[in-house]
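Appendix C reproduces, verbatim, an entry submitted by the partner laboratory led by Prof. M.T., so that reviewers can inspect both the input and the predicted structure.
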Amino acid sequence: MYGVAFPLLYLELALGQYTHSSVLSIFDRIAPIGFGIGVSALWAVLMSVIIGSYFQEVVLTLFYASFDLFTTELAYDNCVGRWCRANCQKIKRRCEELGEAGHLEGYSYSEDFDTTRHSYIGVGDTCVHNEIKYWNKVYTDGQGSFIHSLPELHFSHAYFENYTTLELYSWPHVSSLASAITAACAMAYILSLRRRWVAYIAYIYMSLMFTVTVSIVVIYAYMDPPDYPTSHVFEKPLKFFNTETWLTAIIMACLCLRLGYGGMIYLGSQNSFHNNVQTDAMVITIIVSFIYVSQAMLHALVRDAFLLEAMGGDHQVFLATVQAANDFTLKSNRAGTKLIALFAASFETFRNMHAPLVMLLAVFGFFSALIRKMICVDVIYTALMDYWSFVQSKDIRSSVIILICLCSTVLGFISYCVNCFVIDISMETIVLPNVTCILILAELFVVCGLYGTRRFSNNISTMIEGKLSAIGGENWVNQITGFITMAMLKAVIPVAILYALITYMGADRTNMQFYDVMWQCVLLSPIGICAIIKVAYFYRHRMSYWRLFMPDTELWGPRATANRLLAEKNEKLVRY
């Protein structure tokens, strides 16, 4: 996050703040040959609005189901083990008190839990055995694969955990269509008539997410720490110098902050010209890093505790189950619904707090999906208005936003078809990540290559310091910092992202199909098409081709006259 994501976040925020323009206009003004970068980014934003409706439907269903928990018994069996539902026994927590296998009547392989033949060890709060004389690996793998059909067995809190169940029980359904249309109407109303609510909702959402994450961490770590079983995730030693670890981190860092889409450029354009963009970038990076890392660790811990209990304390089957859940060659394992379903079921660890936590998770899930789409729609609207220089009257704004919401909803209905879930997952986990990395590389080429890192650094100094920072020279600290920044943005980060992209696309676990490649080509095609159109335009009007790679002096720079004059003076000092 700090080696790759922070410099890129800093770059995009600074671009938006310096020009107060959208992603569609910035690259046209900084270098007309790169206009297609903004178009591709806008297409990626539109695609992120269209896909993902299934997640919204899942969390809504989860929210409705959680109401029953306050008046009735837990929606799924008190007995977690799926083989002992009739008797509802659980293995005793004190290993030395574990009796003969007779009290485990109804357990499918209770003969394995025989204290006369096997020794038991305590793992967390569960008694497990690690040696069985007549162990069958096929049986272990078969039992471990139950994770792929979890909702069909039990745990109604984990409904729609995989796509097979989603297809059989919900999709497409009248309620699914109604929820998608209702969400689109809510977005259109807020963005057209109550736009000031967007910032408040976003800040409230991030504040609540941060507060809840901190609270759960405090509860887990200090107030009421449960005894966790040995986690298969944390059994592995931390491979700090493992290439795969760093390549995965690079991809995830770009995805967590939604870099390359133009969202951070949009966020920067909302700031005042002399805002300290360094502080903003640092705060955003710290908060996002903490939230994602904490939630990932908590998910791994509660999931493993839940799965070990679901396996009746059988450590071998538990490891096989975790391995099956982490098999990302299956695209269904990458679904956000997979994570939220296991998380919801795992909250059973909190016993009496299970119902409120499930409801809270469902609310945050729906809130997150709605906020993400709402901001994406506003990014599209702002980009179109900025590029075509329309006067943003109330009527025009309402009409355009309603049209965008209507189009995205209608196009989103394409995914409401049988066997379309895997394509949705491919878009989320293969196509958009790859497109994001390629767009970031294109941005770095235009900003650091064509425009120049030194000029860009000077622009940032102009915004932050509000004076002619080039006069009088720079101290050695700023010189070293500038050198490191230029080296990172010009060489280290592009090479790292390119290597990570190639490795990710070629990895077996990515499971890239022909339609994934086709969609990537479609989303990235505007880069080449727009470049050809620009060249033809310059040729037709007999304009110098060098201007394709240079900023438009009339359009590039700050909007305000005073800031523009200051920026022009600083740029002249850098060039001459």
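The chain has one domain: 5-67+163-549. Additional entries are available on request from the coordinating office.
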